[in-house]
From TrEMBL:
Annotated protein name in UniProt: Thaumatin-like protein
Keyword Zinc attached: no
Ranges where the record places region Disordered: 256-291
Classification via PROSITE patterns: THAUMATIN_1, THAUMATIN_2
Composition skew (Low complexity), residue ranges: 261-274
Signal peptide span: 1-22
Pfam families per the UniProt record, alphabetical: Thaumatin
Keywords carried by this UniProt record: Signal
Length: 338
């Protein structure tokens, strides 16, 4: 009986430690204007807290995510309350009518960061996608963590699009007065652009002149639905990630001109009111807030229900953290008594 109890406590301890290994997404705004990040969890993944917030230029904010989380992140621009008091955005609007997106997706066109944490082989999978169009430059950088727990070959590197595609956008794809660039699928709806119907497989759905405009400017981003080989990145689980809007430089990204080169975003045109543009100076990517003293941490965080993974079944953040803080010493104490 004593041996069975010891095994049970060890299993509980392992489960607690595994589920407690959360990743942290640090959002950094290097644009000259304010952005409003949005977060949407995939079906079956925990709801992150918050699902939307304001991020002034030169600041950063950390948002924790539990192991196994998957979903997408993006920046909304030109946001304000309309005459009825509804919160609306010029690009990336999630249609919730409020600062929080509450499970709603970004309206196209929008640059998307997509993540699956602790997926196949214990690895994290991530990419920056232009399949739904583009509104701002975005860079994902993996950082921290032991890198343990994963298996197989990984391509753990920076991913994203640092170029200003709005200045290169074909006239027929321009949207929101030039503040965003639509995908050909969104603009025309044809199967060959959307990889649908007879084109719903990688053998028939091939790059188009429009997707090649995106790919030539942003070789480390998804340009169309089956652009997997050069666009999906993998890290061993247990890392944190920095998502930078309007990166000043792109460490780890290589231009199409050859290995070892670093692509910097082109000079941006004069910004229109309430439309953020990449800054022309400032600190390097991944730094702290405006005063260089680190990041602003979110007020709340929580872990999904261990049994169901249903966000609605999860406890409130403070109760979850309090329970977690008390559970670990109790389990260790039980082990010492056995």
């Amino acid at each position: 009986m004593e041996t069975e109890t010891r095994v049970f406590v060890l299993l509980l301890l392992c489960l607690f430690l595994r589920e407690g290994r959360a990743a942290t997404f640090t959002f950094v705004n290097r644009c000259t204007g304010t952005v409003w990040p949005g977060i949407q969890s995939n079906a079956g993944s925990a709801r992150l807290d918050p699902t939307g917030f304001v991020l002034p230029p030169g600041t950063s904010r950390a948002v924790p995510a539990p192991s196994g989380w998957s979903g997408r992140l993006w920046a909304r621009t030109a946001c304000a309350q309309d005459a009825s008091g509804k919160f609306v955005c010029g690009t990336g609007d999630c249609g919730s009518g409020s600062l929080e997106c509450d499970g709603q997706n970004a309206a196209t066109p929008a640059t998307l960061a997509e993540f699956t944490l602790d997926g196949g082989g214990g690895n994290d999978f991530y990419d920056v996608s232009l399949v739904d169009g583009y509104n701002l430059p975005m860079l994902i950088e993996p950082s921290g963590g032991s890198g343990g727990g994963g298996s197989g070959t990984t391509t753990c590197a920076a991913a994203g699009c640092a170029a200003d595609l709005n200045t290169r956008c074909p006239a027929e794809l321009r949207a929101v007065g030039g503040a965003a660039c639509r995908s050909a699928c969104d603009a025309f709806g044809k199967p060959e652009y959307c990889c649908s119907g007879a084109y719903a497989n990688p053998n028939t759905c091939r790059p188009t002149p429009y997707s090649q405009v995106f790919k030539s400017a942003c070789p480390k981003s998804y340009s169309y639905a089956y652009d997997d080989p050069t666009s999906t990145f993998t890290c061993a689980g247990g890392r944190d990630y920095t998502i930078t809007f309007c990166p000043v430089a792109t460490p780890g990204l290589k231009s199409s001109g050859g290995a070892g080169t670093t692509t910097a975003p082109p000079t941006m045109p004069g910004a229109t009111p309430d439309t953020p543009r990449p800054a022309t100076g400032g600190q390097g990517v991944g730094g702290g807030g405006a005063d260089g003293q680190g990041v602003m941490l979110g007020d709340n965080s929580w872990l999904a229900s261990l049994a169901t993974g249903d966000p609605s079944a999860a406890p409130s953040s403070r109760l979850a953290l309090a329970a977690g803080a008390g559970a670990l010493p109790l389990l260790l104490h039980l082990l010492l008594l056995l």
